[in-house]
Design brief:
Number of strands: 9
Radius of gyration: 17 Å
Mean pLDDT: 94
Order of helices and strands: HHEEHEHEHEEHEEE
Strand content: 25-35%
Distance between the termini: 50 Å
Low-confidence stretches: none
Helix content: 25-40%
Strand order of the largest sheet: 5-4-3-6-7-8-9
Length: 221
């Protein structure tokens, strides 16, 4: 006997449980982030054969050897960006487009770059189908950013870099924030928050993470 496919009502219930148990209970407090996580249908960004796992507490395969991040990590990284409706946001690593949609629920201007053609096509189709028309997507090397649209109030990187890419720091506005995983050696990665001020660039380590490696012409690779 085969399992019956989950209904949209069941997915909505699982999404509510995900936010309550995995997001709010773990300390996410930004109401915009919580609302975005309640709104975006995570399961629609995941290949159908993995869709039943969409709201579990962990990453899920999306094809091309890539994964969609654990829901808490998506929420936490978004909260650390401190964005609002006026923010201009750059995302490096569109993936399936789920993090992109979460950003677009909060910010009116979202730019996202994906290196893998298969994922770029998948994300483009899903985001357009769900009417995230304010998102601009590009296929290419995200490690160099999107210079024509700089500066950005916030930059989020969803793949691990060997170091903080200078190209992306240079595209931050004064007061802008960047969140990214950085490789520290011995197989470890740390989530780093970068703040660009008028006088300097400040980096702080948030916690240990596990992301796929960044692709492209990355400094230090």
């Amino acid at each position: 006997m085969t399992d019956q496919p989950l209904t949209e009502e069941k997915f909505a219930y699982l999404r509510t449980r995900m936010v309550d148990d995995q997001i709010v209970r773990r300390g996410i407090t930004d109401p915009d982030v919580i609302d975005a996580m309640r709104t975006v249908p995570r399961h629609l960004f995941i290949p159908e054969k993995y869709r039943s796992e969409a709201y579990k507490d962990g990453p899920v395969p999306i094809g091309a050897g890539q994964t969609i991040s654990q829901p808490f990590i998506v929420a936490s990284m978004t909260e650390e960006l401190e964005i609002d409706s006026t923010s201009k946001v750059l995302e490096i690593g569109t993936g399936c487009g789920y993090q992109t949609a979460v950003l677009a629920e909060i910010a009116d201007h979202v730019f996202s770059i994906e290196f893998v053609p298969e994922l770029y096509r998948m994300a483009t189709e899903t985001l357009r189908r769900l009417h995230y028309d304010q998102v601009q997507l590009r296929l290419g090397d995200g490690s160099r950013g999107w210079i024509e649209e700089a500066p950005f109030d916030a930059v989020i990187v969803t793949a691990a870099a060997p170091q903080v890419p200078r190209h992306l720091v240079d595209q931050l506005a004064v007061g802008g924030r960047m969140i990214l995983p950085v490789e520290t050696g011995l197989g470890r990665q740390e989530l780093v928050r970068v703040l660009r001020t008028l006088e300097s660039v400040k980096e702080s380590v948030l916690y240990e993470v596990r992301f796929v490696p960044m692709q492209g012409e990355i400094e230090g690779k």
